[in-house]
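Pipeline run #58 for the internal structure catalog. This entry was flagged by the ingest filter as a single-chain record with no existing model, so it goes straight to prediction. Upstream metadata was stripped on purpose; only the residue string is passed forward. Reviewer on rotation: M.T. Logging verbosity set to normal.
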Amino acid sequence: MFNRQFTRRGVLGTMLAAGLVGPRLGMAAPAGSPTPVSIANASGAVNQAMQELMKQQGFLEEFGLAPNVLAVADGSKILSGIVGGSLDLSTMSGFGQLFPAIERGAEIRVLGGAALLPSLALFTTKPDVKTLKDLEGRTIGTGSLGALVHQLMVALLRKHGVDVSKVQFVNIGASVDIFKGAVMGTVDAGVGELAIIEQQDQYKVRMVEKGNLAVELPEYTYQGAWTSTALIEKERDKLVRTMAAYAKLYRFVQTPDAKDAFFKARKTVFPNASEADSNAVWTVIQKYKPFAADLVLNEERLNFMQQLNIDLKVQTKLLPFDKVADMSIARDAIALLKK
């Protein structure tokens, strides 16, 4: 997946194409001024609602930060921006691609968790696809091979004894496009947001048996926070404060008291969404409590993701924990919340 060394010069072209090159962000703010922080996160529907909730609650500002938050569909563009220095960090995005990048020289570290559980399920419209085993000889919609959704599908199928070599993975794009493909029947199965489990009749789909990824793959960390080692060295305090703000968000949204605020935020982002849609998403959050309220990820979680990369031949060896992660910032962020 990553065929070259990660250097500032090497990623410049990608950054220009992504629109992520600009003034160096994350420089020290004048005394008494909020500290600028540039964040790029995955652009899924839940993430967009969460970011609007963060904005309306003012948690980042509460920690003396002036945030500029981008929603980015392509994780490789986030990686390029962080490596190149035009972005400070990502707080809510998939990070399986970081390990092979680190193996090839990228100075990146995982800072902590965001969504600990995959917020997806596998759906179909095909009457003769009832179990995962039924997908042998069939098509499953994914993103690019080795990327997040493909990794999840391989892990799920292998867990339940499906011969992955007999499944055809079709690169459709982002998860929203994958679900559309499943609804239209252009693929035999595809993932959709977990909340769709509550609305299967509405979308005229069925969840494949054992297709709830939050239940079947609890060891797979769906999203995390990550940054460059350069920023850790130069602006550690900013990272601690940013992580503390997100921990506060995760704790807040997983309590019943957040319901009205969450509905308001989601309505702001998706003005045409029905109350039933928002209620389905809310129900999932309260049922599964997927967000990393304590931020810290253990070695087992990261090793699980690395081993999956190795099995998919996008990474050659298991990297030491201290080579891929720095959890001290997450611990300091939680300590800051307690002050």
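catalog note: The mean pLDDT is 90.
catalog note: Residues 131 and 209 are 5 Å apart (CA to CA).
status: ready for reviewer M.T.
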